[in-house]
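Bumping my old thread because nobody answered last time. Still need a sequence for this structure:
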């Protein structure tokens, strides 16, 4: 069996290396949004989350204004791993290690070129990704939130049939996210701010036959870059007055706005900056049942986001929408939920099994592989397990 993920192998190489090698051509792989801590719950409903209530650990990363939705008491999350993989990535790891060994075993340039081209031709058309997110600890309160986290995203592409190359983007972030929020006008207008201090390990390269020939080993073709950066996110949320209109009272419409990585989150050295992005979102929601016992009620929400409005890409890449149905709490400790939506107009769906002190979540979603236009779907599976109170 000769397939198992290239990206995980590349990620291992990235994390083990600390030196800065010769600069090469960068990849054409698109970045993700948000950059840090994409949550399983939002991804299950199409990654539309900017105006959703801040009822869980995802809120501060999508819109810092949602921090103000937390209760006026402390909530904690500990060691909550999230895995995110493309459906074809599980078959690529062994091939990468075989490639590295096969190239290093060749003693001539012609042999190295032949080995590299054979490998690329076998995988042309594949676009695979592996991600991992680990909040070490999160503290949530109505006025502030703190997260210590590690976040890694690793993507490889074999897209260019006419030019033999492998495109690689690997970005691993370690740092702290400090968020604060406050509300005005009877809590209808919420404002929030995130301060992010991040140490980033980065590889963003297109490896060609020239790189294979001009480097002594395969590992030498991967320049590792590392630097520390500081970024700021701003967010607003507004709950629309109902004006006594029954349909507004039923839907409870809300609007969200975020300006993430204001002025670009900048890193010293050769690590690429994170480009700023401006996004808007809307949500309608309804709680079925008695207001006196809200935890036992059915909750329904529908959200729509238009992401990265300031960046150059097609509208289909910017649009996200989805719906969520939270069931009542059963037996005093168990509450399930289901979701469905579209991320960049690709189907998404997910579920949650919330056991009060532990929560298991799953999502599947599609994402555009192109940087500027809509041309290929990358189908992903995302799962998380979180602990807290």
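Sorry it took so long. Here it is:
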């Amino acid at each position: 069996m000769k397939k198992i993920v290239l990206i995980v192998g590349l990620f291992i190489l990235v994390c083990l290396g600390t030196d800065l090698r010769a600069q090469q051509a960068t990849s054409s792989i698109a970045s993700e949004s948000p950059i840090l801590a994409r949550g399983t719950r939002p991804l299950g409903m199409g990654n539309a989350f900017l105006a959703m209530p801040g009822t869980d650990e995802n809120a501060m990363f999508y819109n810092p204004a949602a921090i103000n939705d937390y209760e006026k008491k402390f909530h904690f999350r500990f060691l909550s791993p999230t895995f995110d993989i493309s459906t074809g990535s599980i078959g690529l790891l062994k091939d990468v290690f075989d490639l590295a060994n096969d190239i290093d075993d060749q003693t001539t340039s012609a042999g190295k070129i032949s080995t590299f081209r054979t490998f690329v031709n076998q995988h042309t058309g594949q676009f695979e990704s592996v991600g991992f997110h680990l909040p070490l600890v999160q503290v949530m309160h109505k006025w502030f939130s703190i997260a210590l986290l590690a976040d890694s995203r690793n993507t490889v592409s074999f897209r260019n049939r006419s030019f033999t190359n492998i495109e690689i983007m690997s970005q691993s972030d370690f740092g702290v996210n400090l968020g604060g929020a406050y509300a005005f006008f009877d809590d209808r207008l919420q404002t929030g701010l995130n301060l992010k201090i991040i140490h980033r390990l980065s590889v963003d390269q297109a490896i060609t036959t020239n790189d294979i020939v001009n480097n002594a080993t395969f590992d030498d073709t991967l320049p590792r870059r590392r630097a520390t950066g500081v970024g700021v996110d701003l967010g607003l949320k507004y709950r629309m007055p109902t004006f006594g209109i029954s349909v507004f009272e039923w839907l409870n419409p809300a609007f969200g706005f975020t300006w993430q990585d204001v002025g670009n989150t900048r890193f010293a050295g050769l690590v690429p900056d994170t480009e700023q992005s401006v996004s808007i979102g809307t949500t309608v929601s309804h709680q079925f049942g008695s207001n006196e016992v809200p935890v036992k009620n059915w909750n329904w929400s529908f959200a729509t986001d238009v992401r990265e409005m300031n960046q150059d890409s097609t509208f289909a890449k910017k649009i996200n929408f989805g719906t969520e149905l939270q069931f009542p709490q059963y037996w005093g400790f168990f509450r399930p939920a289901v979701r469905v939506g579209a991320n960049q107009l690709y189907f998404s769906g997910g579920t949650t099994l919330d056991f009060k002190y532990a929560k298991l979540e799953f999502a599947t979603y599609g994402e555009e592989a192109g940087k500027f236009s809509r041309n290929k779907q990358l189908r992903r599976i995302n799962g998380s397990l979180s602990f807290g109170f």
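Residues 85 and 130 are 4 Å apart (CA to CA). Let me know if any region looks off to you.
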